[in-house]
Amino acid sequence: MSAQGETPVSRRLSKIKHIVIICSGKGGVGKSSVSVQVALSLYASSPNARVGILDVDLTGPSIPRMLGLDGHPVHQSTDGWVPVYADGGEARLACMSVAFLLKRKDDSVIWRGPKKNAMIRQFLSDVRWGELDYLIIDTPPGTSDEHISLIEHLSPVHSRLSGIVVTTPQAVALLDAMKCVSFTRTVSLPLLGVIENMSGYACPCCGEISNVFSTGGGESMAKRGSIPFLGTLPIDTELVTLLDAAAETEQEDDKPIEDVEHEGFRLLRRYKATSSAKLFGPIVENILSRLSGFTAQ
Amino acid sequence: MIAIQQPLDVPANAPDHCPGTESDLAGKVDACEGCPNQDTCASGQAKSAAQDPTMIPMINERLAGVKRKILVLSGKGGVGKSTFTSQLGWALAADEDVQTGIMDIDICGPSIPTILGISNESIHSSSSGWSPIYVQPNLSAISIGFLLPSQASAVIWRGPKKNGIISQFLRDVDWGDLDWMLVDTPPGTSDEHLSVVRYLKDTVGVDGAVLITTPQEVALQDVRKEIDFCRKVGIPILGLVENMSGFVCPGCKTESQIFKPSTGGAKRLAEEVGIELLGTVPLDPRIGKSADYGVSFLDEYPDSPASQAYLDIIDRLRGILGDK
Asked: What are the UniProt keywords, alphabetically (chain B) (predicted)?
């Protein structure tokens, strides 16, 4: 497995410009919702941007639900698995997750490492992503099989890899985020930066900001570890609700795609109306400029 | 190329150039001279601990004095497993005559040491095994956090090594007699869960599992998977706890739903699948604060609605297990 040699994975991913791994040591800090936000924002950043989102959280996949794609099957073509497109006919936002492969959505995936490794290899080598500007990879919590496998299989395309660490501000989460940063250093994964999520919550009644999970921890961790800090996101119930019930949102949308093409698909339109989308703007600009810096190197 | 090619199984106290306990050369190279574990490594014991047939009787013997074994599970991360486990531990240990032990098998993200306020401790081993860390005389805990050189050290392990450490927690820790053993797990349904269930079921058994969730569907769909897991491996489900349900603004005292139950929350899920909803705990920022500072929320804010909710859940659990 030499770094230069061509592998099925490197062949498959040869037309993908940037691969961004979203990780965090701790669970429930918003990796998946940040992944979706990164994907949607990159998608909207240019009318031709092609984005893929790969969910390697095998035992707890959340991406399909968040994109409103629950229950979609994956089709097999002669050229590999066809990803599920969240934007319908436009086919610029591709998604792949183990959830698409389950017979029933309540089925548990009780797999030990070797099977998870095989699944991840298949996701990387058998999905027909085609040409993509960005492939966002959402990972499970921790620093174990999935993460080691990802980095191993992606080693032939290491020059196009980068990572984003998501954390919440409380000490318990920061500890795990620091472990995640140690992991990225061990495997020499360059970090685009840290995002502090769930930092503060504005009461919908009186507007008072409560720091439910404290605040500022992510920024100070980034400073201590000399990692770029990408920004802070508050708890946004609108976003939680939108991503939790994205499918219902999509169902209301019975206008043919052609009619609404200029506005993007419904989830994106709804997302753009949230306050998080506005806050995410500078974060994505930051990500874009760092990514273009990577290419220049 | 990357991390896993270096021996990651080098113990913290190992001599320089230790080949790693999993290596074929373990105990046999020059660097091993004088290492106290040389014999163990050379005999292959360290490597094959997980498959060791003597494991079963050893775990049996070790856990013979443990009355109740409870797993705390959730499909999703960050829903409050470790916080719940710790509060439960503290609540049980409020009775001086009750001995409680907490085993943290979240190998890649151990939170129990911080939440219990014992993150600076490290494990001592004696002739009778590893001594757990005591929070108070009747509340002890074991976690990989106690074995790491620094809090930022990442544990980059694949499954078999995680299984190895879990079997050691079960086999080598000198718990003494315990009324309760609470097992805090990582999110998901994978190696750690399979291992702890297999070892416990083959030996002293498991009394049941408490499932933790938050109200939104993204968390509930992972809990459904966890329920499926429990049923497949034959672990009784004691009940479901809904955490972070509703937030009371400290300014205007109005309750709002941060994680909105778009599909009816834990209540509807519990009805659907026929398990008991043990209770709902509101989202109180002081719970997270207490966890960060390593103090007991129940002791600090005994009059808060969240404390009351915790205590009711614990009473209900005791009721189910027939302790009252």
From this structure: Hydrolase
Tell me which CATH code domain B67-321 carries.
Answer: 3.40.50.300
B211 in A contact zone (CB under 8 Å): no
- Give per-residue pLDDT as tens, B31-47: 777 776 777 777 665 55
Q: What is the pLDDT of residues B65-99, one digit of tens each?
A: 999 999 999 999 999 999 999 999 999 999 999 99
Between B30 and A66, name the one with better pLDDT: A66
A261: pLDDT confidence band, cut at 50, 70 and 90? Answer: very low
- B247/A210 touch (CB, cutoff 8 Å), yes or no: yes
Residues of B whose CB is below 8 A from A168:
78
The alpha carbon torsion through A63, A66, A69, A70 (nearest 10 deg) reads 80
Q: Is it the case that residue A259 has pLDDT exceeding 50? A: no
User: DSSP alpha helices (H): ranges in A154-202?
Assistant: 171-186
Q: Please give the CATH number for the structural domain made up of A8-290.
A: 3.40.50.300
Size of interface A-B (CB pairs under 8 A): 234
pLDDT, mean of residues A215-230: 95
- Candidates A1, A57, A112, A154, partner chain B, best to mutate (most B CBs within 10 A): A112
User: What pLDDT does residue B51 have?
Assistant: 55
Nearest by CB to residue A212, choosing from B107, B225, B283, is B283
Beta-sheet pairing, B124-126 with A75-77 = unpaired
B177 is written with which tokens?
């007699």
Each domain of chain A, given as residue ranges in start order, spans 8-290
Q: Which helix (H) or strand (E) holds B30?
A: none
CA distance A79 to chain B (A): 30
Residue A168 has pLDDT above 60, yes or no: yes
B108 close contact with A: CB closer than 8 A: yes
Q: So what's the ipTM on this one? A: 0.88
Q: Min CA distance, A78 vs chain B (Å)?
A: 32
Residues of B whose CB is below 8 A from A28: 76-79, 187, 214, 219
* Chain B residues within an 8 Å CB radius of A237: 256-258, 260
What residue in A sits closest to B191 (Cα-Cα)?
A: A112
Q: What DSSP line would sit under A28-97, residue for residue? A: SSSHHHHHHHHHHHHHHHSTT--EEEEE--SSS--HHHHTT-TTPPPEEETTEEEPEETTGGG--EEEEE
Burial B183-212 (b: 16+ CB within 10 A, else e): bbbbbbbbbbbbbbbebbeebbebbbbbbb
Question: Across the interface, do B152 and A112 touch by the CB < 8 Å criterion?
Answer: no
Query: First and final CA of chain A: distance in angstroms?
Result: 25
Summarize the confidence of residues A177-198 as an average pLDDT: 96
